[in-house]
Amino acid sequence: MDAGLSGLLLLLCALPWAQGAKVLVFPMEGSHWLSMRDFSRELHARGHQIVVLAPEVTLHIKGEDFFTLKTFPFPSTQEEYQQNLLGNAKKAFETQGFVEVFFENLAALRNVSELYANSCAGLLHNETLIQQLNSSFFDVVLTDPVFPCGAVLAKYLQIPAVFFLRSIPCDIDSEATQCPNPSSYIPRLLTTHSDHMSFLQRVKNMLYPLPLKYFCHISFTPYESLASELLQREVSLVEVLSHASVWLFRGDFVFDYPRPIMPNMVFIGGINCANRKPLHQEVRHRAAA
Ligand SMILES: *[C@@H]1O[C@H](CO)[C@@H](O)[C@H](O)[C@H]1NC(C)=O
Ligand SMILES: *[C@@H]1O[C@H](CO)[C@@H](O)[C@H](O)[C@H]1NC(C)=O
Ligand SMILES: *[C@@H]1O[C@H](CO)[C@@H](O)[C@H](O)[C@H]1NC(C)=O
């Protein structure tokens, strides 16, 4: 058989796959889901088959005609969950001092992340559900790593992962993609520094992320334990997240200070503007000034 013909045959064999992949979407709750929903709708419109995996109890994730919704148990009722989330949001605005806000949020974060981690453990330990997912032969898992359950699942089932996120705290993305991330040049969250820092600013730049590191430790450790248990060896979150083939960031260097990135990190901030509205008059004046 000549090369042209075998090439054509290969193309024909590949076509059905190229036309429609099986995509397992594992979203993060709340506003995170809104742009992922638009993205999933577009994937569906392009002929891909979408299954959305979500907890039974959510604020925004509801069944729709462009995907199949698969749910797993969540250890809280809708009322409790809403109260928990909304109560916490209110507190964040009520309290004044930084230290107060920090400890208030810490308690709240502990609460909510425990709920999420427990639901994730329930999912990953549910053999029936895992077998169903495994035998569905998904081509890719599309997930927001801020809720790392989807990333753990993708690694466990050995399915390629595409991450879709605004950001993930504690520079875990830089670590997982092995990007250079020196704190002497890269301004940290909330410091309002630029890449030109005095000595004292660099010190502040190194200290600011520390409380956040503690947040991350609390919220992410359960997923490391889960991954280690399932894969039967010590696995860090960084290793779980380094499984991603592509990182799609819903951001842009217009909002965030530029930083070194790897070729599999793509900025798609424009996707947040799917529902455009004209700028407010005042904003337009300021932009023009
Ligand atoms: C944590 O959850 C418990 C039970 O759901 C609730 O009573 C408590 O107020 C919550 N704490 C915070 C700080 O949200
Ligand atoms: C496991 O998953 C199946 C299928 O989604 C579900 O019907 C069942 O209730 C789950 N079992 C537990 C113990 O959560
Ligand atoms: C998924 O199925 C494959 C066989 O197709 C099997 O080798 C693998 O162990 C299964 N993975 C899990 C996590 O059950």
Automatic annotation (TrEMBL):
The protein's enzyme class: transferase
The enzyme's E.C. designation: 2.4.1.17
Major place of residence: membrane
Name of the protein described by the UniProt record: glucuronosyltransferase
Entry annotated with the keyword Ribosomal protein: no
GO cellular component, one term: membrane
Organism whose genome encodes this protein: Cricetulus griseus
Membrane topology: Single-pass membrane protein
Family designation: Belongs to the UDP-glycosyltransferase family.
Lineage: Eukaryota, Metazoa, Chordata, Craniata, Vertebrata
Residues in the signal sequence: 1-20
One Pfam family in the UniProt entry: UDPGT
Keyword field: Glycoprotein, Glycosyltransferase, Membrane, Signal, Transferase, Transmembrane, Transmembrane helix
InterPro entries linked to this entry: UDP-glycosyltransferase, UDP_glucos_trans
SUPFAM superfamilies: UDP-Glycosyltransferase/glycogen phosphorylase
GO MF annotation: an example: glucuronosyltransferase activity
Location within or outside the cell: Membrane
